[in-house]
Each structure stands twice: as C-alpha cells, then as structure tokens.
Amino acid sequence: xxxxxxxxxxxxxxxxxxxxxxxxxxxxxxxxxxxxxxxxxxxxxxxxxxxxxxxxxxxxxxxxxxxxxxxxxxxxxxxxxxxxxxxxxxxxxxxxxxxxxxxxxxxxxxxxxxxxxxxxxxxxxxxxxxxxxxxxxxxxxxxxxxxxxxxxxxxxxxxxxxxxxxxxxxxxxxxxxxxxxxxxxxxxxxxxxxxxxxxxxxxxxxxxxxxxxxxxxxxxxxxxxxxxxxxxxxxxxxxxxxxxxxxxxxxxxxxxxxxxxxxxxxxxxxxxxxxxxxxxxxxxxxxxxxxxxxxxxxxxxxxxxxxxxxxxxxxxxxxxxxxxxxxxxxxxxxxxxxxxxxxxxxxxxxxxxxxxxxxxxxxxxxxxxxxxxxxxxxxxxxxxxxxxxxxxxxxxxxxxxxxxxxxxxxxxxxxxxxxxxxxxxxxxxxxxxxxxxxxxxxxxxxxxxxxxxxxxxxxxxxxxxxxxxxxxxxxxxxxxxxxxxxxxxxxxxxxxxxxxxxxxxxxxxxxxxxxxxxxxxxxxxxxxxxxxxxxxxxxxxxxxxxxxxxxxxxxxxxxxxxxxxxxxxxxxxxxxxxxxxxxxxxxxxxxxxxxxxxxxxxxxxxxxxxxxxxxxxxxxxxxxxxxxxxxxxxxxxxxxxxxxxxxxxxxxxxxxxxxxxxxxxxxxxxxxxxxxxxxxxxxx
Length: 684
Known about the structure:
hydrolase; alpha+beta; cell membrane; coiled coil
C-alpha cells in the first residue's frame, strides 16, 4: 500500500519559519542567561569558599554557604526543566492487544502504513468521546525517537462509522508521520521549556524552602536568589508571548496539515462528517453523565451508558431537524451553526485549533474522494463489544463513592426519566420550543375582531425567523464584546464571508437592524396568536377568563424583568466582597448597598405574601428568607466581616433569584397550557 505524502502549504512553511526564528531568539537569550548564571555561580562560589577559609567557624561556614547557594539556586532554576517529565495518568485506560481486538488493530495497521508512521507502542480504550496519540516525555524526547501510544474513546466509536473513525485516527497519526511535521515537535518542546521555567516551580519551591529553613543566614542567600530568579522570569515573559503566539499559529496550521493527510487516507467527507458530529456526541455523552451525577444521592447507576448516549444524540438531532443515516446524525455546517446558535467565527490567536468552519471548509476545498465502504458503527470493530461497553461504564461509576446500595437504571427507565424531566422543565412541548425565550403578547384591540389566518401561525417560516433572531442576538452580543476589547482581530467571518476590522461596526449595525425587523415580526406573530386564542375562547364563553389570565401573566413578566435587573444590581454592588478591599472602601460600599438591600427585602416580602405563589415555596427557604427579613445586619465591623450576617444575605439573594424565576416559569407554563386548546390545530 502506497504511503501518502502531503507537501506542506506556504502558510504552514511561513508559520514554521516564524516559530523557528522565535525559538532561535529564545535559545540565544537562554544561553546568555545560563552563561551569566554560570559565571555568577563561579564568582560566588570562590567568594564563599574564601570566606570559609579565612576562619573556620559555624558563622563563616553558614555565610559562605549562603553566598554560594545564591549562584547554585539560580543555576538549578535554569536547568530544572531537563529533569521534568510529562507522564500521562492512565486511570480509566484499558490496554487492548492485537489478540483481543484483531479488527481494530487491522484498521490501525492500514492507517499507519498509509500515513508512513510506526505502529503505536500501546493501544488503550477509554470511556470518553476522544482519540489521541500520546507518550511520556522529558527533555531527551527532543533528540530520541519515542514510540507513541494511541487512546481511543468508546464514546467516539459509538458515534462514528468505521470510515469516519479511520479518518479521525489518520489525523492523529498524521501529526507524527511527515517530515514537515517534525518542526512542530521542536517548537512544542521549546514552548514547554519556557512554560516550565515560568510556571512549573512547585518542586523547586519545596527545595528552596527546605534549604532556607536551615538557618536565617541561608534564608538571606535564598531571598537574593529569588530576586534574581524573578528578574530572569520577567525577561523570559517578554519572549514567551511572542513564542507562544507563533507556536499556536503553527499548531493551527499543523491541524490543517493533519486534516489533509486524513482526507487522503479516508476522504474529505469522512473527516468532515466526523468533526461535525463529535461535538454533538460529546454533548450527549456528558448529558448522560450529568444525569447520573445529579442522582448520586439516590445511588442510581447503569450497566451501559452508550445506548443512552446514542438516544440523547438522536434526540438533539431531532430537535434541530438533523437527518439520520444508519441511526447517526448527519450534521452539516448549516446545522452545526444552528446547534451552536451562531454564524460568527472570530479567530482566536490563542487557540491551538482552527474553528470548525475553517476546518470543514478546508476539507471541502480539498475535495478528496474516497469510497465510503465501511458504514457500520465503529463500535462493531470490537470483539465482544457489549462486554467492553459495560466494563468502561463500570469504571466510570467506580470513581464515585455511594452511601448506600446502588440501583441500576435500565435504558427504558433512563429514557422515561429524561422525557419526564424535559416535560417538567419545559413550558409545553406542543409549542415545539417557541415560547422557551419568547413570551405571549398582549391582545391588540384592533385584532380582536379581525379574521386571522390560522395557517400563518407556527409555520416553518416563523420557526426559521425565531432561529434567526436567536442567532442574531448571540452574534450581536459577541460583536459588542469584541468591539469593547483592547485587541480587535484583523478580520472575522460572518455567515462564511470575510469581514475586515474596518467593516465590523457596519456588520454590527446591519445585524441590529435585522434583529429589530425579526423581533418585530415575531411580536406581531405573538399578537395574532393571542388574538386568535381570545376569539376562540370568546366563542365558547371564556374570553374574559382568557384575557384576565393573559393580563396576570404580563404583570408577572414585568415583575420578573424588574427582579432580574435587581439581582444584577445586587451582584454588582457586592462584587467587592470577593476581592481584597481596603477597610474604608468596604464601609462606603455597604453604606451604598443599604438602599439596594431595602429593595431586596421588599421584593422578597412580595414573593412571600402573594397567595397564588405559596405552593412554590419550600419550608426551609421560607424560614431562611424570614430570618433575613426580620434581621437588621451589620455586615462589616472594622476590621472584619460578620460571616453570619453575610451568609444570611447571600442565602437570601440565592433564594430570591431562584424563586423569582420559578414564579414566572410556573405562571407562564400554566398560562401556555391553558391556551393550548385554542391552538391545537395550528400547532399540529
């Protein structure tokens, strides 16, 4: 089988040259610092020995040792990275062999032959949605060939076809296969050296602490060494940003290059499909884990989480109108934007990977066709897959300490519980999510007697407009944050079109106008919904009741908006309690907070008193709030906070935030469910 050779792009070469230059500058600076430290050590050692030789006593020995230690500690600091070792934690990793898994190993054989690399030293299975090539490394790894290990997540194999898994693994091996990729390893290690010198100082810190504790004279020498080391770190920090930025840019180009290698092995479509589905698979995997985490107190576990992952993945696909092929969601870039609810791509110069849009567009541009002959689920490559899935699941739950005997949740029970939660936490499923973030509108008098076309309500066009408005809201917020930031990128992408820095403000204005138009369209739709519901309720003699219920909901909505603003105001006013603040400022801040505290107590009292909201309260929360309402608190008595008073305040704030939302949620859900009979045909 022919080995694939993919020549590096001009952009890759340029990034590699810039990274190499920055590394060369660092090496020159490092060697200079090392030679200076060596000279300092020699001078101080000579001085220290001379002092000891003048008159042998405990004091001259200590003084000499203190002087000598200055140079030695600085020298140790500069060479400590040589002894640093990066070791992967293998908890949760299950090693497999060729005898155990011949089909999977045959696939790996095929990949390593095509990309021109060596077979992994070891192959491991893990529970998650991931695949990676890894190895234990130290300084000598820069010069010695080291065989890599391969990790494959069962959650990944449960979400990809065999051809798609082949593409993902080819990408991972692609990083180490081509000569053009070697520069990436050197840049990576050089970057790790600087990171070690700047940030990984725990063991070195322990060493100097032990040495300093020997005697106060030694301590003086250690302090001098620390000041010198801090100076060296400041010099290194100057270069670190430049080197790291160049490394990250090269890292992104390496991802494109590895994608190209994978596309030659398995085809552009196989890798693009895998990349677009992995986020969805990961979300589904963690949704299942979060479900069991929430139920730790009930000691609920399951024997196999992976069918549950598949069900969640298909459920998310159904909600977002993503088609299935062989039970796997076929996510397009358009659907990926819908799920992520954004059309905006901002290049993150600190990112190690290109954006999903960039990678998929790059693969489509390559347009390399390979026959997709193996469309079965990748999990079927495993021998005895059910045993492996259950083993990985058992390993996950073994990490949890349960207080009582565990209860096994079946697949059917899991599905029922999730659907029950969804029903409980949604306003009314029949609305298909329309009112999740939109609200019923007041009835326009002019519409009360107007013929409204029922087919115009809850049409596919309206849901598309709702989706567009959601995306516009998200992207406008991101653009506003971007414009306010100190570093605006040279360009961004919106809806797959390049937008230069000078055009960003114009784009923001266009999106705001589009949002205004879209929001107006939705509001008019909601007015027609209310009017038609009123007309149909009136026809059955219930018009006044409907109008009164809507009016009551709108009052609660207005209160909810006021309470939300109050919560934001409270957190803003109390932000100083989470940071070191001078005593005088603390006193002033709390004096300014008193009117806000009064508003909080008034709003809490109202929530407690309204009769129709009594059922929403838990007894414990009611007692906590009443304690806060009845008390007069002094939160700070110079020089310290009153912890008990602050706890009472923050508990009351958290309960208020929870209850004001719950009141609005329950009233809105109740109204929407009562409105359903008048809209059943339109919603179907």
